[in-house]
Amino acid sequence: MIQDRIYNPQMECMDPEVRRKLQGERLRATVALEYANVPLYRERMDKAGIKPEDIHSMDDLKYLPFTEKTDLRDEFPFGLLASPKSEIVRIQGSSGTTGKPIVSGYTQNDVEVWTEMVARALSAAGCTREDIVQVCYGYGLFTGGLGLHQGASQIGAMTIPMSSGNTQRQIMMMRDLGSTILCCTPSYATYLGETIREMGLVPGKDIKLKAGIFGAEPWSDEMRARIEELLGIDAMDIYGLTEIAGPGVAFECKAKHGMHINEDHVVAEIINPATGEQLPYGTAGELVFTTISKTGQPMLRYRTHDICMLQNDPCPCGRTTVRMGRITGRTDDMLIIRGVNVFPSQIESVLVGINGVAPHYMLVVDRVNSSDTLEVKVELTEEMFSSDTVAHIEGISRQIADQIKSVVGIAAKVSLVPPKSIPRSEGKAKRIIDNRKI
Ligand code: AMP
Ligand code: ZN
Protein backbone atom coordinates (compact mmCIF):
# COMPACT_ATOMS: atom_id res chain seq x y z
CA MET A 1 0.00 0.00 0.00
CA ILE A 2 1.36 3.45 -0.84
CA GLN A 3 1.96 6.09 1.81
CA ASP A 4 -0.32 9.08 1.20
CA ARG A 5 1.66 12.29 1.77
CA ILE A 6 0.16 15.73 2.01
CA TYR A 7 2.32 18.16 0.05
CA ASN A 8 0.89 21.38 1.43
CA PRO A 9 -1.02 20.59 4.65
CA GLN A 10 -1.68 24.25 5.36
CA MET A 11 -3.71 24.63 2.17
CA GLU A 12 -4.98 21.10 1.70
CA CYS A 13 -6.19 20.63 5.29
CA MET A 14 -7.36 24.21 5.92
CA ASP A 15 -10.54 24.81 7.90
CA PRO A 16 -13.20 25.02 5.14
CA GLU A 17 -14.61 28.27 6.59
CA VAL A 18 -11.20 29.92 6.44
CA ARG A 19 -10.69 28.58 2.94
CA ARG A 20 -14.00 30.00 1.79
CA LYS A 21 -12.90 33.45 2.94
CA LEU A 22 -9.61 33.08 1.11
CA GLN A 23 -11.48 31.95 -2.01
CA GLY A 24 -13.74 35.00 -1.75
CA GLU A 25 -10.72 37.32 -1.64
CA ARG A 26 -9.06 35.58 -4.56
CA LEU A 27 -12.30 35.59 -6.53
CA ARG A 28 -12.67 39.34 -6.02
CA ALA A 29 -9.12 39.92 -7.27
CA THR A 30 -9.69 37.67 -10.29
CA VAL A 31 -12.94 39.38 -11.24
CA ALA A 32 -11.30 42.82 -10.95
CA LEU A 33 -8.43 41.66 -13.18
CA GLU A 34 -10.77 40.21 -15.80
CA TYR A 35 -13.04 43.26 -15.80
CA ALA A 36 -10.13 45.64 -16.22
CA ASN A 37 -8.25 43.71 -18.91
CA VAL A 38 -10.54 41.37 -20.85
CA PRO A 39 -13.20 43.00 -23.03
CA LEU A 40 -15.28 39.80 -23.24
CA TYR A 41 -15.71 39.62 -19.45
CA ARG A 42 -16.34 43.35 -19.16
CA GLU A 43 -19.06 43.23 -21.83
CA ARG A 44 -20.71 40.15 -20.31
CA MET A 45 -20.66 41.54 -16.79
CA ASP A 46 -21.99 44.89 -17.99
CA LYS A 47 -24.77 43.08 -19.83
CA ALA A 48 -25.62 41.15 -16.67
CA GLY A 49 -25.53 44.41 -14.68
CA ILE A 50 -22.67 43.27 -12.40
CA LYS A 51 -19.67 45.33 -11.39
CA PRO A 52 -16.55 43.88 -9.73
CA GLU A 53 -17.61 45.68 -6.50
CA ASP A 54 -20.77 43.56 -6.41
CA ILE A 55 -18.69 40.42 -5.80
CA HIS A 56 -18.08 40.26 -2.05
CA SER A 57 -17.66 36.59 -1.30
CA MET A 58 -18.10 33.10 -2.70
CA ASP A 59 -21.87 33.49 -2.28
CA ASP A 60 -21.80 35.92 -5.22
CA LEU A 61 -20.11 33.51 -7.63
CA LYS A 62 -23.51 32.46 -8.98
CA TYR A 63 -24.15 35.95 -10.38
CA LEU A 64 -21.16 35.86 -12.71
CA PRO A 65 -21.65 34.95 -16.38
CA PHE A 66 -20.48 31.58 -17.71
CA THR A 67 -17.72 31.01 -20.24
CA GLU A 68 -17.54 28.28 -22.87
CA LYS A 69 -15.07 26.60 -25.21
CA THR A 70 -16.55 28.69 -28.04
CA ASP A 71 -15.30 31.81 -26.22
CA LEU A 72 -11.76 30.46 -26.43
CA ARG A 73 -12.29 29.76 -30.10
CA ASP A 74 -13.73 33.21 -30.81
CA GLU A 75 -11.01 34.98 -28.83
CA PHE A 76 -8.21 32.81 -30.25
CA PRO A 77 -5.34 33.20 -29.59
CA PHE A 78 -4.84 36.03 -27.11
CA GLY A 79 -8.23 37.69 -26.60
CA LEU A 80 -8.73 36.24 -23.11
CA LEU A 81 -5.34 37.18 -21.71
CA ALA A 82 -5.67 39.23 -18.54
CA SER A 83 -1.95 40.04 -18.39
CA PRO A 84 0.32 41.65 -20.99
CA LYS A 85 1.71 39.22 -23.54
CA SER A 86 5.20 39.89 -22.21
CA GLU A 87 4.16 38.26 -18.92
CA ILE A 88 3.14 35.01 -20.62
CA VAL A 89 5.84 32.36 -20.38
CA ARG A 90 3.97 29.32 -21.70
CA ILE A 91 1.25 28.36 -24.15
CA GLN A 92 -0.54 25.04 -23.81
CA GLY A 93 -3.35 23.84 -26.04
CA SER A 94 -5.96 21.25 -26.76
CA SER A 95 -8.40 20.34 -29.53
CA GLY A 96 -11.13 22.84 -30.17
CA THR A 97 -14.45 22.09 -31.81
CA THR A 98 -13.07 22.95 -35.26
CA GLY A 99 -9.66 22.65 -36.89
CA LYS A 100 -7.93 25.16 -34.61
CA PRO A 101 -6.75 24.24 -31.13
CA ILE A 102 -7.82 26.25 -28.15
CA VAL A 103 -4.88 27.77 -26.31
CA SER A 104 -4.22 29.02 -22.84
CA GLY A 105 -1.46 31.42 -21.78
CA TYR A 106 0.34 30.91 -18.47
CA THR A 107 2.33 33.49 -16.53
CA GLN A 108 5.25 32.35 -14.38
CA ASN A 109 2.84 32.47 -11.44
CA ASP A 110 0.40 30.20 -13.29
CA VAL A 111 3.08 27.66 -14.14
CA GLU A 112 4.12 27.61 -10.47
CA VAL A 113 0.53 27.17 -9.27
CA TRP A 114 -0.04 24.34 -11.75
CA THR A 115 3.26 22.71 -10.79
CA GLU A 116 2.28 22.67 -7.14
CA MET A 117 -1.15 21.23 -7.94
CA VAL A 118 0.57 18.32 -9.71
CA ALA A 119 3.11 17.96 -6.89
CA ARG A 120 0.17 17.55 -4.49
CA ALA A 121 -1.29 14.82 -6.71
CA LEU A 122 2.03 12.98 -6.95
CA SER A 123 2.53 13.21 -3.18
CA ALA A 124 -0.89 11.70 -2.62
CA ALA A 125 0.33 8.79 -4.74
CA GLY A 126 3.27 8.43 -2.37
CA CYS A 127 5.87 10.19 -4.52
CA THR A 128 9.03 11.50 -2.79
CA ARG A 129 12.46 12.53 -4.02
CA GLU A 130 13.47 8.87 -3.80
CA ASP A 131 11.05 7.98 -6.59
CA ILE A 132 11.61 7.47 -10.29
CA VAL A 133 8.70 8.90 -12.25
CA GLN A 134 8.09 7.73 -15.80
CA VAL A 135 5.96 10.20 -17.71
CA CYS A 136 4.35 8.60 -20.77
CA TYR A 137 1.85 11.35 -21.46
CA GLY A 138 2.60 13.27 -24.64
CA TYR A 139 4.90 16.27 -24.30
CA GLY A 140 3.91 19.34 -26.29
CA LEU A 141 0.85 21.55 -26.38
CA PHE A 142 -1.05 18.83 -24.49
CA THR A 143 -0.75 19.53 -20.77
CA GLY A 144 -0.23 15.91 -19.67
CA GLY A 145 3.51 15.47 -20.31
CA LEU A 146 4.84 18.81 -19.13
CA GLY A 147 2.33 18.95 -16.27
CA LEU A 148 3.39 15.69 -14.63
CA HIS A 149 7.02 16.44 -15.47
CA GLN A 150 6.97 19.76 -13.64
CA GLY A 151 5.23 18.30 -10.59
CA ALA A 152 7.67 15.40 -10.33
CA SER A 153 10.65 17.72 -10.73
CA GLN A 154 9.27 20.02 -8.03
CA ILE A 155 9.20 17.09 -5.61
CA GLY A 156 12.76 16.31 -6.63
CA ALA A 157 11.96 12.86 -8.00
CA MET A 158 14.04 11.43 -10.82
CA THR A 159 11.84 12.27 -13.81
CA ILE A 160 11.94 10.36 -17.09
CA PRO A 161 10.32 12.34 -19.93
CA MET A 162 9.43 9.35 -22.12
CA SER A 163 6.41 10.99 -23.80
CA SER A 164 3.84 8.70 -25.39
CA GLY A 165 4.21 5.64 -27.63
CA ASN A 166 6.90 3.05 -28.32
CA THR A 167 5.75 0.49 -25.79
CA GLN A 168 8.79 -1.80 -25.98
CA ARG A 169 11.08 1.12 -25.23
CA GLN A 170 8.83 2.28 -22.38
CA ILE A 171 9.04 -1.16 -20.79
CA MET A 172 12.78 -1.44 -21.33
CA MET A 173 13.36 1.89 -19.59
CA MET A 174 10.88 1.03 -16.84
CA ARG A 175 12.81 -2.15 -16.17
CA ASP A 176 16.35 -0.82 -16.55
CA LEU A 177 15.84 2.41 -14.62
CA GLY A 178 13.52 0.87 -12.06
CA SER A 179 10.64 3.35 -12.46
CA THR A 180 8.42 3.45 -9.37
CA ILE A 181 5.63 5.78 -10.52
CA LEU A 182 3.90 5.66 -13.87
CA CYS A 183 1.97 8.56 -15.42
CA CYS A 184 -0.17 7.95 -18.52
CA THR A 185 -3.75 7.41 -19.64
CA PRO A 186 -5.57 4.50 -17.96
CA SER A 187 -6.02 2.73 -21.30
CA TYR A 188 -2.29 2.95 -21.99
CA ALA A 189 -1.56 1.68 -18.48
CA THR A 190 -3.69 -1.37 -19.26
CA TYR A 191 -1.86 -1.89 -22.53
CA LEU A 192 1.52 -1.56 -20.83
CA GLY A 193 0.41 -4.04 -18.16
CA GLU A 194 -0.77 -6.58 -20.73
CA THR A 195 2.43 -6.25 -22.74
CA ILE A 196 4.58 -6.61 -19.62
CA ARG A 197 2.73 -9.83 -18.78
CA GLU A 198 3.04 -11.13 -22.35
CA MET A 199 6.78 -10.51 -22.21
CA GLY A 200 6.92 -12.73 -19.15
CA LEU A 201 8.07 -9.91 -16.86
CA VAL A 202 6.98 -10.07 -13.26
CA PRO A 203 5.74 -6.91 -11.50
CA GLY A 204 7.41 -6.61 -8.10
CA LYS A 205 10.51 -8.38 -9.45
CA ASP A 206 11.38 -7.12 -12.94
CA ILE A 207 9.15 -4.07 -12.73
CA LYS A 208 9.39 -1.87 -9.65
CA LEU A 209 6.29 0.29 -10.06
CA LYS A 210 4.34 1.00 -6.87
CA ALA A 211 1.80 3.58 -8.03
CA GLY A 212 0.38 5.15 -11.15
CA ILE A 213 -1.40 8.42 -11.83
CA PHE A 214 -3.85 8.04 -14.65
CA GLY A 215 -6.13 10.58 -16.27
CA ALA A 216 -7.04 12.56 -19.39
CA GLU A 217 -9.92 10.20 -20.21
CA PRO A 218 -12.82 8.59 -18.34
CA TRP A 219 -12.25 5.24 -16.65
CA SER A 220 -14.00 3.01 -14.15
CA ASP A 221 -13.36 1.10 -10.94
CA GLU A 222 -13.31 -2.13 -12.97
CA MET A 223 -10.52 -0.70 -15.06
CA ARG A 224 -8.72 0.39 -11.91
CA ALA A 225 -8.89 -3.16 -10.55
CA ARG A 226 -7.48 -4.53 -13.79
CA ILE A 227 -4.58 -2.06 -13.90
CA GLU A 228 -3.76 -2.64 -10.23
CA GLU A 229 -3.68 -6.36 -10.79
CA LEU A 230 -1.70 -6.27 -14.03
CA LEU A 231 0.97 -3.92 -12.72
CA GLY A 232 0.82 -4.68 -9.00
CA ILE A 233 0.34 -1.01 -8.14
CA ASP A 234 -2.06 1.52 -6.63
CA ALA A 235 -3.83 3.25 -9.53
CA MET A 236 -4.91 6.82 -8.81
CA ASP A 237 -7.12 9.16 -10.83
CA ILE A 238 -6.06 12.68 -11.81
CA TYR A 239 -8.25 15.23 -13.57
CA GLY A 240 -7.57 18.43 -15.41
CA LEU A 241 -8.23 20.44 -18.50
CA THR A 242 -6.16 22.82 -20.55
CA GLU A 243 -8.48 25.77 -20.06
CA ILE A 244 -8.13 25.66 -16.27
CA ALA A 245 -4.60 24.39 -15.61
CA GLY A 246 -4.01 20.93 -17.03
CA PRO A 247 -3.70 17.82 -14.84
CA GLY A 248 -3.79 18.43 -11.10
CA VAL A 249 -7.03 20.40 -10.94
CA ALA A 250 -8.20 17.43 -8.85
CA PHE A 251 -6.56 14.18 -7.74
CA GLU A 252 -7.24 11.07 -5.68
CA CYS A 253 -5.79 10.34 -2.28
CA LYS A 254 -5.19 6.89 -0.86
CA ALA A 255 -8.88 6.60 0.08
CA LYS A 256 -9.65 6.50 -3.69
CA HIS A 257 -13.05 7.93 -3.04
CA GLY A 258 -13.35 11.04 -5.18
CA MET A 259 -10.70 13.47 -6.39
CA HIS A 260 -9.68 16.33 -4.09
CA ILE A 261 -10.05 19.64 -5.87
CA ASN A 262 -7.21 22.11 -5.32
CA GLU A 263 -9.69 24.60 -3.96
CA ASP A 264 -7.26 27.33 -3.02
CA HIS A 265 -6.67 27.74 -6.79
CA VAL A 266 -9.84 26.52 -8.50
CA VAL A 267 -13.46 26.58 -7.39
CA ALA A 268 -15.90 23.96 -8.64
CA GLU A 269 -19.67 24.18 -9.04
CA ILE A 270 -22.18 21.68 -10.36
CA ILE A 271 -24.96 23.19 -12.42
CA ASN A 272 -28.07 22.02 -14.14
CA PRO A 273 -26.88 22.19 -17.77
CA ALA A 274 -30.29 23.27 -19.01
CA THR A 275 -30.92 26.14 -16.60
CA GLY A 276 -27.46 27.08 -15.31
CA GLU A 277 -28.72 26.83 -11.75
CA GLN A 278 -26.30 25.60 -9.04
CA LEU A 279 -26.96 22.09 -7.73
CA PRO A 280 -26.17 20.77 -4.23
CA TYR A 281 -23.44 18.31 -3.24
CA GLY A 282 -24.30 14.74 -4.17
CA THR A 283 -26.30 15.68 -7.28
CA ALA A 284 -24.88 14.96 -10.71
CA GLY A 285 -24.71 17.79 -13.20
CA GLU A 286 -22.28 19.81 -15.30
CA LEU A 287 -18.96 20.68 -13.73
CA VAL A 288 -18.02 24.37 -13.87
CA PHE A 289 -14.65 25.82 -12.80
CA THR A 290 -13.47 29.27 -11.82
CA THR A 291 -9.75 29.90 -11.42
CA ILE A 292 -8.95 32.16 -8.48
CA SER A 293 -5.18 32.50 -8.57
CA LYS A 294 -4.28 32.52 -12.26
CA THR A 295 -3.19 35.77 -13.84
CA GLY A 296 -2.43 34.84 -17.48
CA GLN A 297 -5.75 33.52 -18.72
CA PRO A 298 -8.00 33.18 -15.69
CA MET A 299 -11.44 31.69 -16.38
CA LEU A 300 -14.71 32.63 -14.73
CA ARG A 301 -17.36 29.92 -14.46
CA TYR A 302 -16.00 27.83 -17.30
CA ARG A 303 -18.45 25.15 -18.39
CA THR A 304 -16.47 21.94 -18.83
CA HIS A 305 -19.42 19.90 -20.19
CA ASP A 306 -18.14 17.04 -18.01
CA ILE A 307 -20.83 15.40 -15.89
CA CYS A 308 -20.07 14.40 -12.30
CA MET A 309 -21.02 15.16 -8.71
CA LEU A 310 -19.24 16.88 -5.85
CA GLN A 311 -19.00 15.62 -2.28
CA ASN A 312 -17.84 17.40 0.87
CA ASP A 313 -18.11 14.71 3.53
CA PRO A 314 -14.86 14.29 5.53
CA CYS A 315 -12.14 12.22 3.90
CA PRO A 316 -10.04 9.88 6.06
CA CYS A 317 -6.85 11.33 4.54
CA GLY A 318 -7.32 14.59 6.44
CA ARG A 319 -7.62 16.87 3.42
CA THR A 320 -10.61 19.15 3.79
CA THR A 321 -11.11 19.99 0.13
CA VAL A 322 -14.27 19.15 -1.78
CA ARG A 323 -13.98 16.03 -3.95
CA MET A 324 -15.34 15.35 -7.43
CA GLY A 325 -16.55 11.92 -8.47
CA ARG A 326 -15.61 10.16 -11.66
CA ILE A 327 -16.69 11.80 -14.90
CA THR A 328 -19.75 9.83 -15.95
CA GLY A 329 -20.46 11.51 -19.28
CA ARG A 330 -20.56 14.73 -21.27
CA THR A 331 -23.30 17.21 -22.02
CA ASP A 332 -21.92 17.66 -25.54
CA ASP A 333 -20.70 15.25 -28.21
CA MET A 334 -16.98 15.42 -27.39
CA LEU A 335 -15.24 12.04 -27.51
CA ILE A 336 -11.88 11.26 -25.98
CA ILE A 337 -9.96 8.93 -28.24
CA ARG A 338 -6.48 7.85 -27.12
CA GLY A 339 -6.52 10.77 -24.71
CA VAL A 340 -7.28 13.31 -27.47
CA ASN A 341 -10.47 15.36 -27.48
CA VAL A 342 -12.38 14.74 -30.68
CA PHE A 343 -15.49 16.60 -31.81
CA PRO A 344 -17.63 15.26 -34.69
CA SER A 345 -17.67 18.85 -36.01
CA GLN A 346 -13.91 18.62 -36.64
CA ILE A 347 -14.39 15.53 -38.80
CA GLU A 348 -17.29 17.20 -40.57
CA SER A 349 -15.13 20.24 -41.36
CA VAL A 350 -12.67 17.90 -43.10
CA LEU A 351 -15.36 16.05 -45.04
CA VAL A 352 -17.08 19.13 -46.45
CA GLY A 353 -13.82 20.12 -48.12
CA ILE A 354 -13.43 16.83 -50.00
CA ASN A 355 -14.87 16.26 -53.48
CA GLY A 356 -16.73 13.03 -54.09
CA VAL A 357 -18.09 12.41 -50.59
CA ALA A 358 -21.44 13.42 -49.15
CA PRO A 359 -21.74 15.03 -45.69
CA HIS A 360 -23.24 11.81 -44.30
CA TYR A 361 -20.89 10.09 -41.92
CA MET A 362 -20.71 7.93 -38.85
CA LEU A 363 -17.90 7.66 -36.32
CA VAL A 364 -17.38 4.20 -34.89
CA VAL A 365 -15.17 4.11 -31.80
CA ASP A 366 -13.94 0.89 -30.22
CA ARG A 367 -11.21 -0.41 -27.98
CA VAL A 368 -9.01 -3.16 -29.37
CA ASN A 369 -6.13 -4.52 -27.24
CA SER A 370 -6.63 -1.67 -24.75
CA SER A 371 -6.17 0.93 -27.48
CA ASP A 372 -8.93 3.12 -28.90
CA THR A 373 -9.77 2.86 -32.59
CA LEU A 374 -11.69 5.29 -34.75
CA GLU A 375 -13.39 4.37 -37.99
CA VAL A 376 -14.93 7.12 -40.07
CA LYS A 377 -17.61 5.84 -42.42
CA VAL A 378 -18.42 8.32 -45.17
CA GLU A 379 -20.86 8.09 -48.05
CA LEU A 380 -19.61 8.57 -51.58
CA THR A 381 -21.69 10.83 -53.81
CA GLU A 382 -23.82 9.12 -56.50
CA GLU A 383 -21.51 10.38 -59.28
CA MET A 384 -18.39 9.17 -57.59
CA PHE A 385 -19.97 5.83 -56.73
CA SER A 386 -21.17 5.08 -60.27
CA SER A 387 -18.32 6.49 -62.28
CA ASP A 388 -15.01 6.39 -60.56
CA THR A 389 -12.11 4.02 -60.43
CA VAL A 390 -10.96 2.08 -57.41
CA ALA A 391 -7.62 3.90 -57.47
CA HIS A 392 -9.32 7.26 -57.31
CA ILE A 393 -11.58 6.16 -54.48
CA GLU A 394 -8.59 4.88 -52.52
CA GLY A 395 -6.96 8.24 -53.06
CA ILE A 396 -9.99 9.94 -51.51
CA SER A 397 -9.84 7.75 -48.42
CA ARG A 398 -6.16 8.50 -47.99
CA GLN A 399 -6.78 12.21 -48.37
CA ILE A 400 -9.51 12.11 -45.71
CA ALA A 401 -7.34 10.08 -43.32
CA ASP A 402 -4.40 12.48 -43.78
CA GLN A 403 -6.56 15.52 -43.12
CA ILE A 404 -8.16 13.99 -40.06
CA LYS A 405 -4.69 13.25 -38.75
CA SER A 406 -3.59 16.83 -39.27
CA VAL A 407 -6.77 18.48 -37.94
CA VAL A 408 -7.62 16.17 -35.07
CA GLY A 409 -4.21 14.68 -34.40
CA ILE A 410 -5.18 11.02 -34.44
CA ALA A 411 -5.13 8.23 -37.01
CA ALA A 412 -8.50 7.04 -38.30
CA LYS A 413 -9.57 4.23 -40.58
CA VAL A 414 -11.68 5.69 -43.37
CA SER A 415 -14.35 3.51 -44.98
CA LEU A 416 -16.13 4.89 -48.03
CA VAL A 417 -19.62 3.47 -48.23
CA PRO A 418 -22.32 3.56 -50.97
CA PRO A 419 -24.68 6.54 -51.16
CA LYS A 420 -27.64 6.41 -48.74
CA SER A 421 -26.21 3.51 -46.76
CA ILE A 422 -25.80 5.47 -43.51
CA PRO A 423 -29.14 5.54 -41.69
CA ARG A 424 -30.88 8.93 -41.80
CA SER A 425 -32.45 10.18 -38.65
CA GLU A 426 -35.48 12.41 -38.36
CA GLY A 427 -34.22 14.41 -35.43
CA LYS A 428 -30.65 15.15 -34.42
CA ALA A 429 -28.31 13.05 -36.55
CA LYS A 430 -26.72 10.15 -34.71
CA ARG A 431 -23.12 10.32 -35.75
CA ILE A 432 -21.34 8.30 -33.11
CA ILE A 433 -21.30 4.62 -32.21
CA ASP A 434 -19.07 4.12 -29.17
CA ASN A 435 -18.50 0.42 -28.50
CA ARG A 436 -15.88 0.92 -25.78
CA LYS A 437 -16.42 -0.57 -22.40
CA ILE A 438 -14.44 1.25 -19.75
P1 AMP B 1 -7.60 18.37 -22.27
O1 AMP B 1 -7.85 19.82 -22.09
O2 AMP B 1 -7.22 18.00 -23.65
O3 AMP B 1 -6.63 17.85 -21.25
O4 AMP B 1 -8.99 17.60 -22.01
C1 AMP B 1 -9.71 17.81 -20.83
C2 AMP B 1 -10.86 16.85 -20.76
O5 AMP B 1 -10.35 15.51 -20.61
C3 AMP B 1 -11.75 17.05 -19.56
O6 AMP B 1 -12.70 18.06 -19.78
C4 AMP B 1 -12.37 15.67 -19.41
O7 AMP B 1 -13.44 15.50 -20.32
C5 AMP B 1 -11.24 14.74 -19.80
N1 AMP B 1 -10.53 14.25 -18.61
C6 AMP B 1 -9.37 14.70 -18.10
N2 AMP B 1 -9.03 13.97 -17.00
C7 AMP B 1 -10.01 13.06 -16.80
C8 AMP B 1 -10.26 12.03 -15.83
N3 AMP B 1 -9.40 11.79 -14.85
N4 AMP B 1 -11.40 11.32 -15.95
C9 AMP B 1 -12.27 11.56 -16.95
N5 AMP B 1 -12.09 12.49 -17.90
C10 AMP B 1 -10.97 13.23 -17.84
ZN1 ZN C 1 -8.71 12.12 0.82
Quick structural summary:
The chain is of the alpha/beta class.
| Helix content range | 25-40%
In angstroms, what is the radius of gyration? 23 Å
On the 0 to 100 scale, the average pLDDT is 95
The chain-level structural class is alpha/beta
Strand neighbour order, sheet with most strands: 4-3-5-6-7-8-9-14-13
Distance between the termini: 24 Å
Q: What is the β-strand count? A: 21
Number of helices: 12
The biggest beta sheet reads: 9 strands, mixed
Task: Write up what this structure looks like.
The protein is α/β, with parallel strands linked by helices and 438 residues long. The protein is 32% helix and 26% strand. It has 12 helices and 21 strands. The protein has helices spanning 9-12, 16-37, 39-48, 69-74, 108-124, 143-155, 167-177, 186-198, 221-231, 344-351, 382-387, 390-408; strands at residues 88-95, 101-107, 132-135, 158-161, 181-184, 211-215, 234-241, 246-252, 259-261, 266-271, 285-291, 302-308, 310-311, 323-324, 329-330, 335-337, 340-342, 357-368, 371-380, 413-417, 432-434. A 9-stranded mixed beta sheet has the order 4-3-5-6-7-8-9-14-13. A hairpin with a 2-residue loop joins β16 and β17 (340-342). α2 (16-37) crosses α3 (39-48), α5 packs across α6 and α8 packs parallel to α9. The longest helix is centred in the N-terminal third of the chain and has 22 residues, at 16-37. It starts with 8 loop residues before the first helix and ends with a strand. The mean pLDDT is 95.
